[in-house]
Amino acid sequence: MPENEWLAQQFEVHRTHLQRVAYRMLGSQSEADDAVQESWLRLSRSTTSDFENLRGWLTTVVARICLDMLRSRQSRREQPLDASPEPIQAHPDEYDPEHEALLADSVGLALLVVLDALSPEERIAFVLHDLFDIPFVEIAPIVGRSQTTTRQLASRARRRVRRVETAPDAEISRQREIVGAFLAASRAGNFEALLALLDPDATFRAGPAVVAAWSAAATADAAGEFHGAPAIAEIFKGHARGAQLALVNGAVGAVYAPGGQLRGVFRFTIRDGKIVEIDVRGDPASLGKLEIAILGD
């Protein structure tokens, strides 16, 4: 049998495993497929066929490809939420919750969102060690760190994944009720319901591109803030179809995370049962500092 044909057969044996690894690292099926295809190209160009552990070799190659892709994604993702003319609105025919659930695969959308807030090195270390039981001695060369530092990367990621269930139940339940009602009213375009949930003197803060996109609905001040319940209700009327309830630093907020890739975070300040402040941010530097966990509907 020709050597290349033998390699192709062996590669197919491991393809499903490689796709699982790549998807958990990237949170995107199309990018995962690209990473796996690139690993095949590197295997086919390899000058040796003497692999003691082909599965391990391919896993390492895919991990390095994914790390490069994550770093590239991070470097070009400058304020991804602000870059969109309609940052939190999906067309009714385009937003499909069932499709979003399928994209999340067996990893779970909640985990993908948390992973997307990690640094590329933290994500690689955590996924390889905690999800695929790969020892740190093999992970360290991939991320270019010592074993001790690599262990710390995975530990830091692990804490962020787990540190999402510490808020008082009663307070969280009330916040969840109010924010959930606000998102539902926003999706439905119910101006009166939005108005009822907002404090009369509420403030909405957003990045400059979001302000520009919504300037037709209301006028922002010099600091990029919108003031007053009527103006904010008008802004959110018919929006937020792609937003999902989430715990953000222990309080109920919302995230915009199509396909599990975190693009924006909504933080709400609630007093006396009314929303007094809404802050929307999408820059990677800010998102990377937040503790996030998706909540069910």
List low-confidence stretches.
78-107
The counted number of beta strands is 7
CATH superfamily of the largest domain: PhyR, sigma-like (SL) domain
Please state the average pLDDT score: 78
Rounded Rg: 22 Å
Write down the CATH topology of the largest domain: Butyryl-CoA Dehydrogenase, subunit A, domain 3
What is the element string, with H for helices and E for strands? HHHHHHHHHHEHEHEEEEHE
| Category from helices, strands and their pairing | alpha+beta
**Based on CA inertia axes, which overall geometry fits?**
elongated
Give a structural overview.
The chain has 297 residues and is an alpha+beta fold. The protein has two domains: 137 residues, PhyR, sigma-like (SL) domain (Butyryl-CoA Dehydrogenase, subunit A, domain 3), CATH 1.20.140; 126 residues, Roll (Nuclear Transport Factor 2, Chain: A). The protein contains 13 helices and seven strands. Strand 5 and strand 6 form a beta hairpin. The N and C termini lie far apart (55 Å).
